[in-house]
């Protein structure tokens, strides 16, 4: 079963990005940073979700991100599916903080139970076929959404219609230039139909 080891975000200012992530989220070795001046504008076509086990943890992560300099795209709210909000880091990456739980059942912490990368695709069916041909197994698939089975992978992965993903993140769907993200896995090196780069896992931590 495919394994996503980590992701690398490409940022304008390495020092600022490191300071933000050190203060906002404890992602250990699942998140890497590298400096770039590759042009980019608007929606970069993805977001990363941090899933926690209870609302209090989501609130704590959200508040920590905002205090560290994130921009609020969607304030934390309760909904039929659970509790969550969306922020944009100073480097431009969009982070969704969420839980399906309705109430707290333990002391509040900054614990993250799961990280999920959702890529916005212009043609979900074509992208789904592309990834299946590279060894990924579909877990759930309905309409414009695909969730792949990632087994023990520390990072989950799915596809969503680009316009729908942008709406979910609270931004306009338009965007050009670099996605500013690389996915590290055991699938080898390639670029998907939407221009997202996949690379081998970094040798050094």
UniProtKB/TrEMBL annotation:
| Residue ranges of domain Glyoxalase/fosfomycin resistance/dioxygenase in the record | 32-96
Signal peptide location: none
Which is an annotated Pfam family here?
Answer: Glyoxalase
Q: What PANTHER family does this protein map onto?
A: BLR2520 PROTEIN
Query: What's the protein name?
Result: VOC family protein
Species annotation = Promicromonospora aerolata
